[in-house]
Write the structure tokens for this entry.
Amino acid sequence: MNLWKLSAGTACVIGKKKMKADVLPTTAYIMLGEKCQNNCQFCAQSQDSEARANLLSRVTWPAIPKGEVTLGIGDSYRDGTIKRACLQVVQRGDSWETTVNALELLHTSSEIPICVSSHLGTVDQAKELITRGAQRVCIALDAATPEVYKTVKRGQWASKWSLLVECAQALPGLITTHIIVGLGESEQEMVGRMATCIDQGITIGLFAFTPVRGTAWANHLPPTISHYRRIQIAHHLLKKGYQQSIIDFHNGNVARFNVPEEKLIRLLADGQAFETSGCEACNRPYYNERPGGLMYNYPRHLTTVEVAKAIQECEIVKGVYDELANY
Ligand code: SF4
């Protein structure tokens, strides 16, 4: 494979594409292969999708000669504009060979930390990726529950979940997963899944479901911003060491965070809860957002006004502006 696909923002950072963007990626996103063997209802790369082949989520992926990609990423890593590479390989019959070859080339071209997301069948394959130079391995769960997994991914939850947990135990602190909010799970189910992942030492990259034209779920609605903010706050509190028992639910939705309001606002004041989550330095600009539209995940630090707005959007924390004026 001589051409590698880069997210448009990544291509811009390494000087291979001109585009206007408020925020550029701090991770280099590389996608190899197209038209996956899977049938995820939300994904532009799914085998049933009629979306453009150069789309993943909302992002376009121009193809660039791999030698230029590795040189550009190496230079951008050395000058500090890019801090990580994320290698995502679409599931095909040859995806393992593709993954290993690309990882080797990327790893020998620079010292950049690499996260690999590819179809894996065994813990030994995850270990082999680490041995071959990956810093982290991502096993994307996408769906928070077995029921949602069956509906949306048409696959076997049990084997994916057990592989994720076994990898997390075999490679402590080196495993990431992706979970998508708004695929039909309740907020309570999402919080439960996040808590279990965090207990297992699994890093979570949270996504908001984003309808993409040409996919089976093109006409489904994304989560409301209040729903997403409650999940982001819950995720942040769980990462800070709080147990899920401090969260009250009503009809499956988060009804209250049982942390004194002043303390809660102090915990949220730096805005990190609302920034893109996942591997360190992964900011995924505009994966889920239209420029100028709703910011599910902020790809940069928030201003104080944006923090106050984000907290207020969760609809269950009051008095935000007065409290934040103290910070
Ligand atoms: S969290 Fe970011 S860097 Fe890590 S696997 Fe996901 S997209 Fe890639």
Residues 27, 84, 86, 115, 117, 138, 176, 178, 205, 278-279, 282, 284 surround iron/sulfur cluster (CB under 6 Å). The chain is about 35% helix and 15% strand. The chain has a mean pLDDT of 92. The first strand starts at residue 3 and ends at 6.
